Amino acid sequence: MDGGRQKAIIVLLAINAVLICFFGISLKKQLDKKNEILSSHISNIYNSIYSLENSISSRIKNELEQRYNLVESAEYKFTNIDPDANRAVLDITVKLRAVNAYSSIFLSLSETGKDNVQEVELVKRDGLVYSADVELDLQKNYQYDIIERVNGGGQALLNTYRHYINLYDEFYIKRVQVHSTGSGRSKDQLDFNFSFSVNDFGLDEFGLENVILEILHKDETIDTIDITGRLEKYAGNQELQERYNLAVASGEIEPDMSLEEYKEYFGFAPEEGEAPRKQYNYTHIIKYDTDYPELQLDQEKAGNIRFGLIITCRDGYRYVWK
Question: Is the pTM of this model over 0.70?
Answer without folding.
Answer: no
